[in-house]
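Re: the 114-residue chain
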Amino acid sequence: MTHHDQRSEEHRVYIGTEETMTDVRERLAGISSKSVILVVPSQTQLRHAVAWKVLARWAQEQGREVSVASSDKQIRALARSVRFVLIPAELPSEQRPRTVQNGEGQRKRRGKAS
């Protein structure tokens, strides 16, 4: 699945759990945008340093800027090792809106007047 963000001219490419780095490269080759965010799930097959190095070399040759979003520490370390930009996979807990139940069972945001 691919998501195109027109405001920033970036593409988000959602990687499937069974996809190989060859699959990823083929998908990236079909995208015209120079800036791509790979959204990599924790249950991925992409755990080999050599494959990440090959992807990084390919991206450099193609003039692509690749960023990686993943909550998996190993994937983040591999992406960092080949100098891909890391994007937070989710907001840190202190940045997430907090929702609480009021006495009447209605939801409201903490710290906001209702």
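Strands lie at 2-5, 10-14, 35-39, 65-69, 85-87, 99-101, 107-109.
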